[in-house]
Amino acid sequence: MDLIEKAARKLKQSSRQSLVERAAGKLGGVSSAEQKADVAENPVARAAPAVAPEPAAAAQTAVSPKKTSRRVELDLKSLKERGFLTPDTDPTMTAEEFRIVKRSLLLNAFAKGDAAIKNGNLILVTSAQPNEGKTYCSINLAMSVASEQDLTVLLVDADFSKPEVLNTLGVTGGKGLVDVISETGVDLSDCLIRTNIPNLSILPAGRQHNLTPELLASERMGEIVEEIATRYRDRVIIFDSPPSLASSAASVLALHVGQCLFVVEAEKTTDNDLKEALSLISGCEHVNLLLNKTRFSGSNSKFGSYYGYGYQ
Questions:
Q1: How many angstroms separate the CA atoms of 98 and 306, rounded?
Q2: Number of C-alpha atoms within 13 angstroms, CB side, residue 55?
Q3: How far are the Cα atoms of 83, 87, 172, 287 from residue 78, in angstroms, in the given order?
Q4: Is the dihedral of CA 160, 165, 170, 172 positive or negative?
Q5: Looking at the chain, which runs of residues are DSSP E strands?
Q6: Comparing 59 with 103, which gets the higher pLDDT?
Q7: Which of 5, 101, 136, 160 has a CA that sits 20 to 30 A from residue 289's CA?
Q8: Exposed/middle/buried for 43, CB within 10 Å: 0-12, 13-18, 19+?
Q9: 12-16, 34-38, 181-185, 216-220 — which is least confidently predicted?
Q10: What is the distance between the alpha carbons of residues 111 and 108, in angstroms, rounded to a whole number?
Q11: How far apart (Å, rounded) are the C-alpha atoms in residues 94 and 86?
Q12: What is the pLDDT of residues 40-49, one digit of tens each?
């Protein structure tokens, strides 16, 4: 009888054990008794509910690198010695002449109402033949505009076959306009070069490309022109273009700009060259002629003599 009672007692304990285990399984695998025992042994570990770790993607926010344009120091002393205008240039005849030239261009660039010119703040500087002084005039015009208090100027080295702006200014080239047009991954702002003249920036020509005229005539070029013409309302963009009789790029660029400054070398540019060259850039309706390398004075008075630098 004792053996039967012992067997029955063990069977009853076993059934109770399985019921407890099954109940604990439904509650998460730990019985309330075990939980109490665990809290008693380690109250700190059970004081706060467990928090699931955040996914790595949510914990870290991707930050794209900030794009910054390159900055260079122009040798202003060297430029001044070579006859270029600089911010600290003393009053000279050249400075006064370019003030007159730029004032007419700026009045057209920012005209309102019926007098407004589409893309008037985009100015093409070209000539009929090489060596007539177009790059010299482009740089000096840019320097003169940069001296304005309320304007900035972007000088574009757009003579793609023989880029001279950067060489003249002593600046190392890099990616430029051609790269922006031909490569969708290149941003215009990444190619701009800031200078130690606060209001002056430079855009290099970029790499050589055998389809440059076609790139300039592309829809992509039109989008870039529209962007730089309207993005900054206080900016003047000056394109130092190839000579119009030496490259078809000048005639294509003329389609995008609002004004053209056509440099004519005194006593050298022929009438036939001038007429032919002007016909090639007829896509620009507002063309101004600039007579360069002249020593002729149109009056008996000395222009600029008020400042003490006039000559006859």
A1: 17
A2: 3
A3: 9, 13, 16, 32
A4: negative
A5: 70-72, 122-127, 152-157, 193-195, 200-203, 235-240, 259-265, 287-292
A6: 103
A7: 160
A8: exposed
A9: 34-38
A10: 5
A11: 11
A12: 445 444 444 5
- Please state the length of the chain: 312
**Sign (positive or negative) of CA dihedral 253, 255, 256, 259:** positive
Q: In this model, does residue 61 exceed pLDDT 60?
A: no
Report residue 198 as tokens: 């606060």
d(C-alpha 109, C-alpha 116), whole Å: 8
In angstroms, the CA 212 to CA 231 distance is 24
CB 150 within 8 A of CB 28: no
What single letter denotes the amino acid at residue 285?
Answer: E
Tens digits of residue pLDDT in 119-139: 999 999 999 999 999 999 999
> Which one-letter amino acid corresponds to residue 213?
P
As given in the structure block, the two tokens for residue 311 are 């000559």
Q: Report the sign of the C-alpha dihedral through residues 257, 286, 159, 85, in that order.
A: negative
The two tokens of residue 23 are 């109940």
Closest residue by Cα to residue 246 from 216, 218, 213: 213
